[in-house]
């Protein structure tokens, strides 16, 4: 029967006397909840919270929303070497990033004890400490040990589950873990155990089991693992598969009978799972992952803006693995604080010309900081130069009176003059996001227009992804570099990236190709027509014809020819 009783610490417990369960704990948690558990005093020590976050099986999009949110807010991130760079990029640029998976030669720089101590120390000094672990933190990841160390030290912690590799990689391999009629159970096991008598007993049991068996940490020892299972009684004809780098663009799946698996799989370079069971036969019908024309290809898209890139989006849809480099951050420009006074000075008559998307957001932020909002713009006309600037105004729910598609100063000035005679003795407020003085403003001033130029945003190049990109290039894992614009090519070089000869460089158009050439990055592919679609098409053509790839590697060094 149920027994409610009061426990000395204060909570009300209800349950069977031998197994009570807490239903209600009336004592308020002094730490508050969620992200606000900051500033706790325990034994006089101010503390934050440590979050053991599952990063998911590989594809950076497979992290949970809670995990991504914590990563964005973290003061410190401790991560393993294997965690995808796309995820680390989510972190706040000012966050301290510690790679605890780092090695010096063969030896790990951080053993488990050191990681535990670091986690405890950091959480005593910072509000949000994220310990990012591959897959799920509590599946073969020693997350349990880290949580125990935190609990013993009295450090508040939270565990954010992740999609474990056994679940995520198999979904992307088209192998259901269970399937009616084929398998009603699944076992996750690690091959890491040495062959001691106790584990021998367990493996004997495993060899005799039906259902699905998923073996972690066996990629480097497939022969050992399969021979052991066969020796202990599993049939060499059992169906099996290996999934290497599951969920990632270079995912590789090999299916074979257990007795032939090691031979067929060959050498594994990425993390791999061994799967044994009848369910592997379903892959024949359920394989869905490796279908885009760019599956297995890795492409770096250079970036000059903080916005999402249409090129990157299209390439990803075709199956390519994307790195975007460098990361661009927008900060307030030198004239941001002059915006409110300049707008007031127009006194309801004049034109505001925006010359970039970041100019729109920077302007509105500066306006708000001065205590103003859209009402301050009553009576003023708004003009936007360039497709993305027009879109930025639309996103801000501001009507664009004069959309100007050309970037050429002469054409912009002509459009302003044509459009309702904007330049007939109306003052112009030119809002810029670039660093250089605008040729447009100078031109207008020269023609007698009253122009105030304000730079409301400035861009900084965050080159943290450089090592990651260079490592991929050194390992021959990068198939192409795409330069969507001249400024993106400049940002790439500004970010310090050293591009070895032999990497295929693709430029958006002749003027981008010319900039790239000047910067020492000759483009091998320059599509005939401009636009994202043509660029993507040219890249797909180049990367999907095997002979063209080999050829292009040499050609990229010598020619800037078109396909
Ligand atoms: N906590 C992790 C597992 C850590 S053990 C999780 O829940 O997934 C590391 C092992 O996980 C690797 O040796 C490999 O067997 C497996 N693994 C991790 N990522 C993988 C991936 N993308 N594809 C296949 N196996 C993977």
Structure description:
With 563 residues, the protein is an alpha/beta fold. It has four domains: 48-163, Cobalt-precorrin-4 Transmethylase, domain 1, CATH 3.40.1010.10; 167-291, 2-Layer Sandwich (Methyltransferase, Cobalt-precorrin-4 Transmethylase, Domain 2), CATH 3.30.950.10; 298-326 and 464-557, 3-Layer(aba) Sandwich (Rossmann fold); 331-460, Rossmann fold (3-Layer(aba) Sandwich), CATH 3.40.50.10090. The protein is 33% helix and 23% strand. The chain is built from 20 helices and 28 strands. Strands 8-7-11-6-12 form a five-stranded parallel sheet, sandwiched between helices. Strands 13-14-17-15-16 form a five-stranded mixed sheet. Helix 17 links the parallel strand 27 and strand 28 (504-507). Helix 10 (310-317) packs parallel to helix 19 (532-544), helix 12 (357-369) runs parallel beside helix 13 and helix 17 runs parallel beside helix 18. It is elongated. Mean pLDDT is 84; it is low at 1-43 and 547-563. The structure holds S-adenosyl-L-homocysteine. Residues 57-58, 133-136, 139-141, 164-165, 169, 216-217, 219, 243, 245-248, 271-273 line the site of S-adenosyl-L-homocysteine.
């Amino acid at each position: 029967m149920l027994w409610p009783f009061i426990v000395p610490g204060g909570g009300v417990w209800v349950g069977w006397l031998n197994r009570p369960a807490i239903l209600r704990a009336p004592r308020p948690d002094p730490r508050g909840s969620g992200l606000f558990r900051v500033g706790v005093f325990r034994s006089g020590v101010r503390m934050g919270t440590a979050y053991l976050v599952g990063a998911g099986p590989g594809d950076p999009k497979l992290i949970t929303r809670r995990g991504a949110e914590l990563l964005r807010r973290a003061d410190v991130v401790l991560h393993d070497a294997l965690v995808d760079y796309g995820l680390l990029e989510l972190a706040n640029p000012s966050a301290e990033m510690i790679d605890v998976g780092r090695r010096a030669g063969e030896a790990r720089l951080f053993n488990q004890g050191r990681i535990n101590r670091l986690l405890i120390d950091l959480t005593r000094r910072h509000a949000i400490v994220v310990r990012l672990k591959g897959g799920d933190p509590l599946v073969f990841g020693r997350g349990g040990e880290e949580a125990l160390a935190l609990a013993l030290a009295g450090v508040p912690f939270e565990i954010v589950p992740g999609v474990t590799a056994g679940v995520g990689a198999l979904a992307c391999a088209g192998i259901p873990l269970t399937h009616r009629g084929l398998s009603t159970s699944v076992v996750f096991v690690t091959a890491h155990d040495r062959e001691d008598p106790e584990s021998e007993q367990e493996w004997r049991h495993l060899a005799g089991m039906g259902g699905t068996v998923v073996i972690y940490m066996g990629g480097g020892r497939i022969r050992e693992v399969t021979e052991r299972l066969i020796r202990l009684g599993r049939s060499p004809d059992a169906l099996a598969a290996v999934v290497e780098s599951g969920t990632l663009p270079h995912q590789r799946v090999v299916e074979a009978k257990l007795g032939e698996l090691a031979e067929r799989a060959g050498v594994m370079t990425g993390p791999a799972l061994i799967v044994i069971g009848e369910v592997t036969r379903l892959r024949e019908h359920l394989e869905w992952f490796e279908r885009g024309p760019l599956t297995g290809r890795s492409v770096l898209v250079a970036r000059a803006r903080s916005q999402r890139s249409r090129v990157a989006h299209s390439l990803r849809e075709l199956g390519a693995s994307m790195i975007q480099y460098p990361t661009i951050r927008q900060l307030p420009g030198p004239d941001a604080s002059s915006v409110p006074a300049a707008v007031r000075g127009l006194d309801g008559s004049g034109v505001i010309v925006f010359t970039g998307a970041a100019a729109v957001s920077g302007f509105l932020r500066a306006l708000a900081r001065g205590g103003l909002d859209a009402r301050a713009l009553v009576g003023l006309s708004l003009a936007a130069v360039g497709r993305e600037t027009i879109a930025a105004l639309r996103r801000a729910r501001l009507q664009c009176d004069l959309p100007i598609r050309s970037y050429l100063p002469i054409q912009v000035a002509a459009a302003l003059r044509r459009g309702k005679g904007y330049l007939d003795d109306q003052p112009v407020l030119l809002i810029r996001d670039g660093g250089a003085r605008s040729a447009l403003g100078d031109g207008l001033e020269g023609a007698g227009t009253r122009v105030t130029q304000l730079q409301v945003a400035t861009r900084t190049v965050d080159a943290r992804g450089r090592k990651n990109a260079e490592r991929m290039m050194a390992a021959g894992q990068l198939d192409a570099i795409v330069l969507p614009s001249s400024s993106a090519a400049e940002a790439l070089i500004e970010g310090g990236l050293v591009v070895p000869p032999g990497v295929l460089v693709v430029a958006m158009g002749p003027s981008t190709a010319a900039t790239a050439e000047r910067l020492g990055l000759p483009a091998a592919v320059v599509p005939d027509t401009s636009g994202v679609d043509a660029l993507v098409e040219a890249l797909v053509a180049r990367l999907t014809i095997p002979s063209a790839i080999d050829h292009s590697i040499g050609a990229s060094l010598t020619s800037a020819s078109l396909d």
